[in-house]
């Protein structure tokens, strides 16, 4: 995934479940996401993220 395609508040997939983009640092080329499932904030590269989250059995918690 390209970092320039990300927007704050967007849902993307990481580690087989949706996470919410809460910050983008174009200088360091990382995105900060909030993982509601694990209640953790993570800083990841765009390569770690999948653009369109797939439908998961627990996705009702995120949308």
TrEMBL record:
Name assigned to this protein: Uncharacterized protein
Organism: Pseudoalteromonas citrea
Taxonomic lineage of the native organism: Bacteria, Pseudomonadati, Pseudomonadota, Gammaproteobacteria, Alteromonadales
């Amino acid at each position: 995934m390209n970092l320039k395609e990300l927007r704050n508040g967007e849902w993307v997939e990481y580690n087989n479940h949706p996470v919410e983009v809460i910050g983008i640092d174009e200088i360091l080329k990382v995105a900060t996401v909030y993982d509601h499932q694990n209640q953790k904030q993570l800083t990841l590269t765009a390569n770690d993220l999948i653009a369109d989250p797939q439908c998961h059995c627990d996705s009702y918690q995120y949308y």
